[in-house]
Amino acid sequence: MGSTSAENHGTEGVGRRDLIKRSAALGLISVPTTSFLSACASSGGDDSGDKAKAGKKTAKNPLGVNDTAGMEFVLFDGGFGKEYAEDAVKIYEKNFPKVKVKFSATQKIQSTLQPRFNQGTPPDLIDNSGAEQMDMGVLAGKKQLTDLTPLLDAPSYDDPAKKVRDTLRPGIVEMGQLDGDPVWIMYYAYTVYGVWYSQKALDSLDATYPETWDQMLAVCEKAKKKGMAGWTYAGKYPYYLPFSLYPMIGKVGGAEVLDAIDNLEPNAWKHPAVKACFEAYYELFKKGYVLKGTPGLDHIQSQTAWAQGKALFIPNGSWVENESANVIPKDFSLAVSAPTGIDSSDKMPFGAIWASGGEPFIVPARAKNAEGGMEQLRVMLSEASSKNFTSKVKSLTAFNGGTDGITLTPGLKSGVAALEKAGDNVLNPRMQDWYVQLQKEKIGVSGLGEMMAGRLTPAEAIKKIQAYADETAKDSSIKHYKHQ
Q1: Count of alpha carbons within 13 angstroms of residue 188, beta-carbon side
Q2: How high is the pLDDT of residue 7?
Q3: For residue range 301-314, what is the model confidence (pLDDT) as tens digits?
Q4: In which compartments does the protein localize (predicted)?
């Protein structure tokens, strides 16, 4: 995933968000429909007459929320569940006792909310995630979103001497800036992407996590001899493959290769690092190291097979620990690692990893109570709410901290360790939140999915994906972005 927002498949009725989410990532529903785009273009972001009047700004109410105005909050009902948000709503209602928050959760974000955007009656706060994630580039481009800068510049919930922006993890603010200074999106979760595995299973092979591709192939051969596949993945949603493949490309060729891909630069996909990494992954298929039947598995089925010990490695994001909690054995020793590289000639050291904001929250421009939506986010970005989220869903938040005093679960502990090992070598490819359809349906399903099923060679997949990228770059109806 958006992201990312990278994982859910509302069409399955289960699971996480994909970004593009996890968008979510993936049933495949192509993100916004033509009717949505045209409606956005016509509806604009002008004020509607029934907006809540501004309240009085005070130390406890820095955003000037109307303390009698209702607030509506729609959450994506995915792998993180809804309890953490319901808990934050209770705090909002305690702070504004005259207010009742209308809270609901759904997996069908677009089909539920598109008509309301069209009518100019959207909720005040939306967790825009899942397979039916609305395209945020389109929303921002059509002036459908509220700039969250006032929230970022407001005093933080815990320490009035600190602004909200000063309490966030690196990169969170920048991720919400699609073009220029305004911040349209607040990514609430902080996701570690990479290769997930059972340390117990790896130990049983008398192996350590492989740092070079020759070592990877050797570990997979060991697993194969013991009746275990080396890899599986969400075959129906192969945009999960980039969760480990993209940072591998960055490790091998440098972050600038990923930037060129995101920027839709000509021939970006023809870089030698892309070729090397595609060929490496294709080798997993050619040597029989991918679990048989994987192309037909969805994210839940592949995660279940992996948790049952049928495969050693799976590309995923840190939501997997919560999403698969009911199938991961207690003695599994869940772990995540940065992607294996090719060899010592890689541009970045082993440990370079993809970590970034996920679970994108937005406040519509035509919300009746935009201040209320932002205040709810301010509550959620407090240390207490962050700890509550981390404790309940086994994932970090955008709040830079919130783990003190918490007993970290194995996957979360491993994710924190992976971030510490990465240091400054944290990559953040933007394809999944800048170009949802390109990432999910074209690069993911039509390119990588076909290659890993053996229906395209790496060279054919690269040629096909480059053509898709060129097509997107030339499409004037699509908003284009570039790394600053």
Answers
A1: 33
A2: 45
A3: 999 999 999 999 99
A4: Cell envelope
**What pLDDT, in 10s, does the model give residues 206-234?**
999 999 999 999 999 999 999 999 999 99
Residue 184 burial by Cβ neighbours in a 10 Å radius (0-12, 13-18, 19+): buried
List the structure tokens of 403. 């783990």
User: Which residues are registered as beta bridge partners of 316?
Assistant: 194
d(CA 86, CA 101): 10
The whole-angstrom distance between residue 307's C-alpha and the CA centroid of its chain comes to: 22
Number of Cα atoms under 13 Å in the Cβ half of residue 60: 7
Instruction: Check: CB of residue 18 under 8 Å from CB of residue 237.
Output: yes
- Residue 240: closest CA among 292, 317, 173, 147: 317
Residues 6+ apart with CB under 8 A from 413: none
Alpha-carbon distance of 436 to 4, in angstroms, equals 9
What is the predicted pLDDT for the residue at 48?
45
End-to-end CA distance of the chain: 22
pLDDT-derived band at 49, boundaries 50, 70, 90: low
Q: What is the DSSP letter of 260?
A: H
Q: How far is CA 324 from the centre of its chain?
A: 17
131: left (phi over 0), alpha (psi -120 to 50) or beta: alpha
3-class DSSP state of 334:
strand
> For residue 420, what are the contacts with CB-CB under 8 A and spacing of at least 6?
none
Give me the residues paired with residue 362 across strands: 126
Round to whole Å and give the CA distance between 433 and 452: 23
The C-alpha atoms of residue 299 and residue 276 are separated, in whole angstroms, by: 26
Structure tokens at 440: 């999910």
CB 273 within 8 A of CB 210: no
Q: Write phi, then psi, for 101 (nearest 5 degrees).
A: -85, 130
Place of tokens 């105005």: 69
